[in-house]
Specification:
13 helices; mainly alpha; 288 residues; globular; MetI-like fold
Length: 288
């Protein structure tokens, strides 16, 4: 007897598809439409084909911003992922200390992005900021407003302070999901702390780390508010990332056509790199 499938449950998903279409697909199609037109005003526009895409691909300023963006994102991942794992391993697992640790770690995540930039703008000043004054007290002529290297390091430190807690909380939840029997077996075998981490905890954190890497890469690759408030993209263009270049082009210069093409290329780069990350990690898991 053939069993008849009931597909009525799909009707429950239709509202989600409608919301996604309204909030994502329709704006995306609008951007695609803008990317092939030269727009002078709402009534005057001309079809230009792939001209804006060619301009984006040959723009040296955008190439520089893309290089800075990749360096920044990979620097962030190299710092925040190991640091987040270390913080999660040090957090208590039982009692009031566990609850207090979770609250304290999560505090930076509750602060709006523009406020984070303002906090570090004050924190890094040499006259009134604790960090700036401390650097100057150590004999370092620290000034993020005039020194490109200092500005770059300050933006990295700001992002590490703001987003490492996200990685730590993800890893903490993954560690708490490991059954106690694994640790009991490790104690029976007299496994070292490193062996427990290497053969029990790290493999069990793989799925969590995939989420953490993808989230942190996407977010760091789209960073805008924090460096804009802190340095305004300077000194020069040392902290001008892709998002700032896009906003300047779309809003500051009102070049909607080139900005739309730029945003589509931007989206495809993020999608491609995330796919590479995910595929590489999953293949590494299959090989084990």
């Amino acid at each position: 007897m053939n069993k008849v499938e009931n597909n009525k449950a799909w009707f429950l998903v239709l509202p989600v598809f409608a919301i996604v279409a309204f909030s994502a697909i329709i704006p995306l199609m609008t951007v695609v439409n803008y990317s092939v037109q030269d727009i002078f005003d709402p009534q005057t526009r001309y079809f230009v084909g792939t001209e804006w895409f060619k301009m984006v691909m040959t723009d040296s300023d955008l190439h520089g911003a893309l290089l800075r963006q990749f360096i920044f994102s990979f620097t962030i991942l190299a710092i925040e992922i190991p640091l987040g794992i270390a913080v999660a391993l040090m957090m208590p697992t039982k009692g009031r200390g566990a609850s207090l640790a979770l609250i304290l770690v999560a505090i930076p995540l509750l602060i709006p992005w523009n406020v984070v930039g303002t906090i570090w703008q004050i924190f890094g000043r040499g006259d009134i900021g604790l960090f700036g004054a401390a650097m100057n007290g150590l004999g370092i002529d620290y000034n993020y407003a005039s020194n490109p290297m200092h500005a770059w390091l300050t933006v990295v430190l700001m992002d590490v302070w703001h987003w490492t807690p996200l990685v730590a909380l993800l890893c903490y939840s993954g560690l708490r999901a490991i059954p106690e029997v694994y640790y009991q077996a490790a104690r029976i075998d007299r496994a070292s702390r490193w062996a427990v981490f290497r053969y029990i905890q790290l493999p069990k954190l793989t799925n969590v780390l995939i989420i953490g890497v993808l989230l942190r890469f996407m977010d760091s690759f789209m960073i805008y508010a924090e460096p804009f408030v802190l340095t305004g993209g300077g000194p020069g263009t040392s902290t001008t990332f892709l998002s700032q270049s896009l906003v300047t082009q779309a809003i500051g210069q009102f070049d909607l056509g080139p900005a739309a093409a730029f945003s589509l290329v931007y989206f495809l780069i993020i999608l491609a790199v995330c796919w590479v990350f995910y595929t590489t990690i999953m293949n590494m898991q299959k090989d084990k």
